[in-house]
Here is the input.
Amino acid sequence: MAETSSARGSWNSKLGFILAASGSAIGLGNIVFFSSNAYQYGGGAFYLPYFLALFVLGIPVMITEFGLGTMTNRSFPEALYRVAGRKAEFVGWWSLASALFITMYYVAILGWALGMMFGAFGSLFEGGVTAPFAPFSEPTDGPSATVYFFDLITTWWPLLCVVAIWTMNILILWKGTATIERAVRIFVPLMWLFMIGLIVRGLTLEGGVDGVLYLFTPDVQGIQEPAVWKGAFSQMFFSLSLGLGTMTAYASYLPKDADQVNNSLLVSFMNCGFEYIAGVAIFSLLFVFALNPVGGTLSLAFFAIPQGIAEFPWGVRLFGFLFFFLLVIAGITSSISLIEGPASALIDKFQIPRPQALAMVAVPGIVGSLFFALPQIIDPSLSGNGTLGLSLLDVMDHWAFNYSLLTVGFFECIMVGWVLGADKLRAAVNKYSKLPIGPWFDVIIKYVAPLLLGTVIVWNLIEEFTGETLYGAGADLGAFNWIPYVIPFIWLIGTLAVASYLTFGRTYKVAPAAYSPSDSPQTPA
Here is the structure.
């Protein structure tokens, strides 16, 4: 594979890039959040909107982010700067600042998963467990993943696990694409292998097939519900890791002649394929043990599925260990991309060594992750999330994850569609594509994607501020009742301040040249 820049590094093969990009997209959300959404929105009723969202939103925006990377050979902020100016660079830095907040609590969740993984060979699947909360004060009659989890997060053990996860991330990123590629060549195939193992186990249980039938049986009445379509389009954007700057950073290590239409299709279909088989595996378990995943990602990952595994007739500890090992490695393939995004941007802007850039990301990242894993009990009645760390995490996730990705995607489409010109990006991509994209791409990027993303954002905000209370304010957090009101401001003001400083307060050590259409001559669509 041709070199992009010896200083920045490049992928050794197309396979390495595809595995890294698909690993970035495939994470905890693919394994559990998709299944939770599908269950919540009526199983098969979720699939048609989701499938349409893939082609109307997912793949076109993926082509855009990959195209920006190879057109400029730079990470997200500088890529946007080159095609749309300084204000566009601000959006890029704001995206990466929000991605760092997401990384902080994402690693905290991986720390809990690592603790549960070790617990699989400890007392996770044993009875008689308690947790220091009023509902769990009495020993359980049998295994209870829920009680075990709440006991785990009140200890200091997850903080050590958080440091371990960050250490693994830094080691994988230490030499850039070289070490990333080595890791994903092991981790990504393992994710598929373990998920297929769960499918086999689920389908061989009595009643497992019924869950799969529910998953693939469409409910016409459900499809007519606007909330189903909103959930499907939101899930698609989150699922593909769009709006985080990671895909542009990864694509910037490719040569300019990379076929980004083909790459976008491969990554998108691998991501969605993994979600589909994860849905088969998890729905078979849910129906066998009559479990309800509607509570969301954490409850499905840490309560429902482990509780189902506890009911296996054999191999309980092994399957429990493998499931949490799957969560850990799937999470790491995503977290390394979340860290690489800002690291590569700092390298591009300040021309600093990779270890220095990683330190600038990791130091605040580790501190933030430790805050999200704090074991202090602030809600002993468990009316909310119980601990300080989980309460902080829940509110931060609601705001940073629900709004930053969609907002960045909205402005990204506006800048590419109207400032650069979607036709120019299409020409650059088509120059090396075996499957050229037509003028329909311009219409989607200029009109359809901004309309869909803007609608979802406005819908979310209306629901946010027309409810009786602000998100998270319903729980009694004692002295910490300020959390639901302060955390959104910390995220918003913090990210805007970082983006402003890096955009307007610091100049590039090497001034970036504006992208010229002559760099990628027009080709017939």
Remarks:
- Residues 104 and 364 are 9 Å apart (CA to CA).
